[in-house]
Amino acid sequence: MILTALCELYNNLILDPESGVAQPNYSSVPGSYAVELSRNGDFNGIITLVENKQRVMMSVPEQAGRSGKNPPPYFLCDNAKFLLGFEYDKKEKKLIPMPERLRSAYDAYRKIIGSSEDAGLKAVIAFLKNRVDGLPLDIPADHPIYQSGNIVFRLTDEKGYIHERSEAKNVWERYCNASASSEERGQCLVTGLLNQPLAKTHTQLKGVADANTTGCVIVGFNFPSVTSYGKTQSYNAPVSEKAMFAYTTALNFLLSKNDSRIQIGDTTVVFWTDRKEDSKALSLISALLGADAPKDADTSDRLTEQQISDILKKVRSGQAVNDPEFKVKTYILGLAPNVARASIRFWYEDTLENFIVKTGEHAENMNVVKSAKLKSRIVSIGDILRSITVKSSKKWWENVPSSYETALFRAIISGDMYPTSVYSAVLMRIRAEAGDDYGIDYIRVGYLKAYLRRYYQKQNMTEKMEELTVSLNQKSTDTAYSLGRLFAVMEALQQKANGTATIRSRYFASASANPKLVFPTLLNLSQHHIAKIDGRYYDKQMEAILSGVTEFPAAFNLEDQGKFVLGYYHQREFIYTKKEDKELQEA
Fold first, then answer.
1. What is d(CA 215, CA 212) in angstroms, rounded to the nearest whole number?
2. Domain enclosing residue 324, as ranges
C-alpha cells in the first residue's frame, strides 16, 4: 500500500524532466566538490560546487545504502575516504589515512570500467592509482573537502563532469545489468511481477530527523528473530530492484523538499498528491497539519492564510467543500526514527476533500476564544502533545509515548474518539501548572473541549455537545462548568482586592477535583474581598452563577474536571475581553 503509492509517485516524477528525480540505477545527490584532472590523471585543482548558497544537485550512479566494516564505494561520486584516501579527524585536527577505502574504490572502478578507452574514465583510474601508489596530493590538510561532502571528477579542458559522459553511463549500465542477473529472483510484492531480480538490501533514506546520519530504511532484516523460511535480509519481504529503487527515490525526493515535509516532534511527515505540480494542495495540507509555510516557499503559488481560513469556515458551517481541485488523491506518511530504521507512525490515503473535512471538524472541536493574533492559527498535533509535557522540555517528544501521536492522528482523520490518555495528561499538566500564566492556555483547553465534544457526539448526546461552545456559554447550567466560571470570578475579585498572587495557584487543582472541600472556604474569602472593595458587581456575578448550582459535589470525574477547566477559561477570557473594551472606550 505505502510502497505502491510511492512507486506511483516515482513514475509520475520521472515524466517531468524538471523534477530532478533520478532515473533507474542513478541517484540525485548534492555535489560539494569537483576534482579537476588532466588526461593523464594528474591533479589540477578543486572546484567548489555551490549555487545560490546551496550545493548543486546531481544525477550520479546509484548510491544505495552502505554500512558495516567494509562499505562499498560509489562510482564516480563519493567522499574523501574513498577518492582521496584520507579522513579529517576534527579532534586531533589531522588527516587519517584510509588506504583500505581507497583501494576498494580503485579495484571497484577498474572492474566497472573494464577495457574502456574513454579519456575521462582512464583519467580517473590513473588518478586513483597514483593515490594507491602513495604519490602526494597537493591539497592542504585543513581543506573542507576532507571533512564531508560528495566529490566528482572533471577533465580540465572540458565543461561537463566525467560521470555525465556517455561512455561512463554505458559502463555503469552494463555493470548494473550484469549484477542484477546474478541476484535472487522471485515475485515482487509491490508490482506483482514474476521472476524479478529482488533487492537484497534497500537504499538508505536521508532526511528522517534523528535517524542515523548515514540514513535509515523502512524495509530491513538483519537479525535471525525476524527472518523465516531460510531467507536472508530483505529477501524476507521480496521487493524487486526496480520497485525498491522507485519507492526509495520517491521518498528521498519528498524528504528533501521543504514544501512536502514537516516535523511533528520526532516524527518526520511527508505528503503528496497524485497531481503534477500541486503546490497549492501541498500548502493546504501543510497548514491543516499545523505547520508554518517554509521560509523559502514561493508565496505566489501558495494558498494564503485567508484562503485556508475561508475553507475551514465552509467546513464549520456545514457547507460541502465542493471544489474539483479537492478531489485529488492525497497521501500522508509519518516516519519516526528507530536507529537504522524508520518506523511508520501513521499513514493516510484518501481525497484531499475528505482530509479537509476531517481536519476542519477537528479545528472546530478545538476552537476556543483567544486573542485576535491567534484566531486563525491552526493547532497542530505537535502543539497538543507539547502541551502535556513540562514547559522547559526542549526535546519534549522524548517524554511523550509514540502511541499518543498515532492515536491523535487517527482520531483527527477518521473522526474516532480522541485518546483518553492525552485528555488525562492535559488535566494533569493543568493541575500541576495552574499557577503559571501558561498553565491554562487555549491549546490545553481546546483539547479538553474537543475530547468532550467528540465523546458526546459518539454517545448521541447532542444537547450536551452543543453546550460546549467556542466562548462563554452563560446559559449552561452544568455544575462543573458553572463552578469553573465561579472560580474565575472569585479569582478576578481577589486580584482586584489584593493585587497579589491569585487563588488559582493554591486552590485550582483541588477545586477542579474536590469542589466540596474547597468552595465553602473560597466563598467566605470572597465575602471579605467584596467588603474591601465594594465589589457588588462581582457579588451579582457570583450569585447569578450559583443560582444554577444545587450542591458542591464531593468529587468530579475526568469528564467534569474538563468542563470545570473550560468554564474557568471561558469566564476568564470574558472578563479579560470586557476589560479591554473598557480601556478602549476610556482612551
1. 5
2. 2-9+185-331
Phi, psi of 435 (to 5 degrees): -75, -15
Question: In sequence order, what DSSP letters do the residues of 49-113 get, joined into one string?
Answer: -EETTEEEEEEEE------SSSPPPPSS-B-HHHHTSEEEETTTTEEEE-HHHHHHHHHHHHHHH
Task: Kindly give the interhelix angle for 352-366 and 402-414, rounded to the nearest 10 degrees.
Answer: 110
Please state the separation of Cα 240 from the chain's center in Å.
Answer: 29
- Residue 414 domain flag: no
pLDDT digits (tens, 9 = 90+) for 377-399: 888 899 999 999 988 777 888 88
In angstroms, the CA 75 to CA 83 distance is 10
What is the phi/psi pair of residue 171, to 5°?
Answer: -65, -35
553 shares a domain with 529: yes
Q: What is the pLDDT of residues 112-133, one digit of tens each?
A: 999 999 999 999 999 999 999 9
Q: What are the pLDDT digits (tens) for 297-347?
A: 444 445 556 677 777 777 767 676 777 888 899 999 999 998 788 999 999
Q: Are residues 74 and 154 in the same domain?
A: yes
Residue 220's pLDDT band (cuts 50, 70, 90): confident
pLDDT at 52: 65
Residue with cell 505528503: 271
Q: Quick one: what percent of the chain has pLDDT higher than 90? A: 58
Higher pLDDT, 205 or 235: 205
Same domain, 116 and 195: no
Distance of CA 228 to the CA centre of its chain: 33
| Amino acid in the structure at residue 308 | I
Residue 181: per-residue pLDDT: 56
Q: Per the confidence metrics, is the pTM higher than 0.85?
A: no
Is 174 in the same domain as 196? Answer: no
User: Which of 104, 102, 68, 77 lies closest to 87 in space, CA to CA?
Assistant: 102
- 3-class DSSP assignment, residue 495: helix
Residue 201 falls within a domain, yes or no?
yes
162, 180, 198 - which closes a domain = 180
Q: Do both 129 and 189 map to the same domain? A: no
Count up the domains in the chain and report the number: 3
Q: How many Å apart are CA 420 and CA 135, to the nearest integer? A: 68
Give the distance, in angstroms, between the CA of residue 252 and the centroid of all CA atoms in the same chain. 14
**143 and 202, same structural domain?**
no
- On whether the CB atoms of residues 567 and 484 are closer than 8 A, the answer is yes
**Same domain, yes or no: 165 and 200:** no
pLDDT of residue 231: 76
Whether residue 76 is contained in a domain is answered as yes
Q: Are 162 and 152 in contact (CB under 8 A)?
A: yes
Q: Is residue 154 part of a domain?
A: yes
Q: Where a domain ends, among 299, 331, 363?
A: 331
Binned at pLDDT 50, 70 and 90, residue 499 comes out as: confident
